[in-house]
Write a structure and sequence with these properties.
Length: 222
C-alpha cells in the first residue's frame, strides 16, 4: 500500500502542476492586426521595425511571454505601407535602371513581389541561425497559407517551433522555444485564428495567399 501511495502522490502533483500551467493560458486578441492566439498570460509588447527583403523599413510589434521553461513570442509586421515606401524609393531610379538601388527587380510595382515573398523571407531568417533543421513544411491556419519550421538550437539543444503567415497585409510570426525532450507547444501553435475588420473570428471559403492583385477572399464562417 505504501508503494502505491509513493507512486500516486508524485503523479498527482505533476497533474496538478500541469493544470495550473494550463490555466495560465488565455486567448489573446489583436483587433488592429486581425488575429487571435492562445498565449501564456498577458504578453509584453515592444514596438520595433522590420526590414523587408527589398529594403523597406516597416513598423512591427513583438509580443513575448513565458510558461515554465517555455518562451513564446509573436512578431507582427505591418506591410500596408510597403507600396508607398518602395514606390517613393523607386522614383530615384532613372527610367530603365530599376537596379539603381542595388536590388534586383526594383521599380514601380515591384513592391508586390516583396509582399508575395514575405513568408519565405521570414523563414530564411530562422534558417540562418545556428540551428539544425528538423522539419520544414507548408501549412494552413484557418485556410490562410503559411509555413512551419521545427529547429534544434545547436548550443543548448532547445527545440524551436515557428509558424509564419501573411494575412491582411500583416506578417505574423509565431515562435516557441522549449527545452530538449519537451513536447511540442501545440496549445500555442495550433490556436492561431483570424479576425475581420470588426474583430470577429472568421474562416475563409478558399485558401488565402494574401496576393496583392487578388480580390479579398470569401468568408464562410464567423
Amino acid at each position: 500500500m505504501m508503494r502505491l501511495t509513493t507512486v500516486f502522490v508524485p503523479a498527482l502533483m505533476l497533474a496538478l502542476a500541469s493544470n495550473a500551467v494550463a490555466q495560465d493560458w488565455d486567448e489573446f486578441f489583436s483587433k488592429e492586426e486581425r488575429f487571435s492566439v492562445n498565449f501564456p498570460g498577458t504578453p509584453s509588447m515592444t514596438e520595433t521595425t522590420w526590414t523587408s527583403q527589398f529594403g523597406a523599413i516597416l513598423p512591427a510589434r513583438v509580443y513575448t511571454g513565458a510558461s515554465g521553461p517555455g518562451k513564446f513570442s509573436i512578431t507582427v509586421v505591418d506591410y500596408n505601407p510597403i507600396q508607398r515606401l518602395l514606390s517613393e524609393r523607386s522614383m530615384s531610379c532613372a527610367p530603365g535602371t530599376e537596379t539603381c538601388q542595388g536590388i534586383h527587380d526594383w521599380g514601380l510595382g515591384y513592391w508586390k513581389n516583396d509582399v508575395r515573398g514575405a513568408v519565405l523571407y521570414a523563414s530564411n531568417k530562422f534558417l540562418q541561425r545556428d540551428v539544425k533543421v528538423v522539419n520544414v513544411m507548408a501549412n494552413f491556419a484557418d485556410l490562410v497559407a503559411g509555413q512551419e519550421l521545427q529547429l534544434t538550437d545547436n548550443k543548448d539543444q532547445s527545440r524551436i517551433f515557428a509558424s509564419i503567415y501573411m494575412h491582411a497585409n500583416h506578417l505574423v510570426i509565431l515562435e516557441a522555444r522549449v527545452p530538449k525532450n519537451y513536447p511540442p507547444p501545440t496549445i500555442f501553435q495550433q490556436s492561431l485564428s483570424w479576425l475581420d475588420e470588426n474583430g470577429t473570428r472568421v474562416r475563409y471559403n478558399n485558401i488565402n495567399h494574401n496576393e496583392p492583385d487578388v480580390p479579398p477572399p470569401g468568408i464562410r464562417g464567423r
